[in-house]
Amino acid sequence: MSEQFDVVVIGAGPAGYHAAIRAAQLGLKTACIDAALGKDGKPALGGTCLRVGCIPSKALLDSSRQYWNLQHLFGEHGISADNAKIDVGTMVGRKDKIVKQFTGGIAMLFKANKVTPFYGFGTLHPGNIVKVKQHDGSEVELKGTNVIIAAGSDSIELPFAKFDGDKIVDNVGALDFTEVPKRLGVIGAGVIGLELGSVWKRLGAEVTILEALPDFLAVADAEVAKTAAKEFKKQGLEIKLGAKVSKAEVQKDGVHLTYNDGKADQQLVVDKLLVAVGRRAASKGLLAEGTGVKLNERGQIEVDEHCHTGVDGVWAVGDCVRGPMLAHKGFEEGIAVAELIAGLPGHVNFDTIPWVIYTEPEIAWVGQTEQQLKAEGTPYKTGSFPFAAIGRAVAMGEPAGFVKVIAHAETDRVLGLHLVGVGVSELVHEGVLTMEFKGSADDLARICHAHPTLSEAIHDAAMAVDKRAIHKAN
Ligand code: FAD
Ligand code: NAD
Question: Which residue out of 153, 277, 424 has the highest number of ligand 2 atoms within 8 Å of its CB and is therefore the one to mutate?
Fold first, then answer.
């Protein structure tokens, strides 16, 4: 006999828990199933993001930034400390405490909103039946008028560098090293490679990142990527582009890597190897025979623009469907689907999803890059402004980077905002808001920005679009 719900959500990551809470808020009887366990072996809600992704990585990025600044930035402020030390156990313990606070917070939110949690692995069967294998071995059967699949994603494993949880790791292992590795190798100069590579570099590891593609951070604006690469080089992050790794052998003295740099085979020996070559949709064991839910060629659950799978009452959201693998993209899809189920006009605007890479300097953007606009033949104009000419950034001792506004050449409508520098993870939302309201570069230029703030770089960059920036030659 199955227990009946209006909505059954599979997965309590960002996409799933948003869907579940919003559905319950809208008066729908909602269940949410999650299989994950925390480091203490107890069920932990919140998905990759809260357990082993966004939040723990930012906790370590912040800790390591303090340590790095103590050694590299505080001196110019006249602040010094003898014998600065790093205690990795305390740092990782602090991260674990934050993770526990937030995963526990989701359980409390479920209780407050009357979402019924089920702790175990869910499999969708025909007829919107979800069978849940609970951690104690028992099975329950749920029937949802609607089922929302929010199963998330897993790290991609390279066949010649299998994760062993010790020497060869993914994000999970790299968030939990017990000491600073002397030599850290990273395969993939993407978001995880750069963020977690930065963490361990700041703490003293020699970090070498091997990237297969010839261009650095090709998804970002080319000028932003170039500036970021220059800053990372200054910090001592070694990034080798066009490096094709073919072998990773664990030996007594470390992991022996063989890669080809386009000219010849090269060797690199590291103490730990982080493989960060992307993630793929999690669908193993998720779908029983005959559900009618289809997977595309990338293994993602196929959905339309409303996250509907084409099977009556079955939806899918977050990392397990097309689109960027970002927590906030999942948040929006989860809310939109819950609202659509309740008969409201749920909607996600894919054109205004911001991207942030939490390195130092931070990298952020929303909208299209110059490369994309050129390729599609859209006429555009740009205005840039450096943080080196922004009083607040200089006063902070963080003058690296710039802001670039891209606007349509004829209508002046903002098509993209690209930033690299201090605090740009927050500043990018000025671009999101402008684009959501279909604003122009002139709108941005005429909005009063407080002085002295970092946001003035956006103001001046917007003015530079029409060659009227005040604080630089146009
Ligand atoms: P997930 O968070 O993966 O959650 C899916 C949940 O479903 C999991 O708990 C899983 O156990 C459960 N599940 C799966 N299948 C079943 C099943 N059959 N039955 C029961 N439960 C199931 N994104 C950002 O926007 N900003 C960041 O700063 C950021 N940093 C990141 C750092 C790292 C190191 C990593 C790895 C990722 C980061 N991301 C970041 C990406 C972000 O974590 C994901 O985009 C986001 O977690 C996806 O949410 P989701 O709900 O789709 O899936
Ligand atoms: P990614 O797609 O960002 O980067 C993977 C990199 O690995 C790419 O540059 C790719 O060219 C390279 N690569 C692939 N195969 C390779 C190989 N065999 N050898 C060498 N290089 C290879 O993937 P990721 O860094 O693993 O992160 C996964 C996803 O998690 C990201 O796409 C992102 O959506 C999400 N994430 C987001 C944030 C954030 O928002 N700040 C942080 C971390 C992760």
Answer: 277
Residue having the nearest C-alpha atom to atom 47 of ligand 1: 49
Any binding-site annotation on 91? no
| 48 close to ligand 1 (CB < 6 Angstrom) | yes
Of the pLDDT bands very low, low, confident and very high (cuts 50, 70, 90), residue 473 is confident
- 3-state secondary structure string across the chain: CCEEEEEEEECCCHHHHHHHHHHHHCCCCEEEEECCECCCCCECCCHHHHHHCHHHHHHHHHHHHHHHHHHHCHHHHCCCCCCCCCCHHHHHHHHHHHHHHHHHHHHHHHHHHCEEEEEEEEEEECCCEEEEEECCCCEEEEEEEEEEECCCEEECCECCECCCCCCEECHHHHCCCCCCCCEEEEECCCHHHHHHHHHHHHCCCEEEEECCCCCCCCCCCHHHHHHHHHHHHHHCCEEECCCEEEEEEEECCEEEEEEECCCCEEEEEECEEEECCCEEECCCCCECCCCCCCECCCCCECCCCCCECCCCCEEECHHHCCCCCCHHHHHHHHHHHHHHHCCCCCCCCHHHCCEEECCCCEEEEEECCHHHHHHHCCCEEEEEEEHHHCHHHHHHCCCCEEEEEEEECCCCEEEEEEEEECCHHHHHHHHHHHHHCCCEHHHHHHCCCCCCCCCHHHHHHHHHHCCCCCCCCC
Range of the domain at 306: 3-155+280-348
Same domain, 110 and 32: yes
Instruction: Please indicate, yes or no, if residue 304 is contained in any of the structural domains.
Output: yes
* 173 C-alpha to ligand 2 centroid (Å): 16
If asked whether residues 151 and 179 sit together in one domain, one would say no
Last residue of a domain, one of 262, 277, 292: 277
The reply to whether 147 and 289 lie within a common domain is yes
The reported pTM is 0.98
Q: Is residue 471 part of a domain?
A: no
**Average pLDDT of every residue of the chain:** 97
Tell me the per-residue pLDDT of 25-37, one tens digit each, with 9 for 90 and over.
999 999 999 999 9
Ligand 1 lined by 35 (C-beta under 6 Å): yes
Last residue of a domain, one of 226, 255, 277: 277
**Residue nearest to ligand 1 atom 23, measured at CA:** 326
CA–centroid distance, residue 58 to ligand 1 (Å):
15
Q: What is the pLDDT of residues 287-310, one digit of tens each?
A: 999 999 999 999 999 999 999 999
> Where in the sequence numbering do the catalytic residues fall?
451
246 and 313 both lie in a single domain: no
Which ligand does the CA of 333 lie closest to?
1
**Total domain count for the chain?**
3
Same domain? For 381 and 399 the reply is yes
Q: Is 375 within the bounds of a domain? A: yes
How far, in Å, from the CA of 140 to the mean position of ligand 1?
Answer: 24
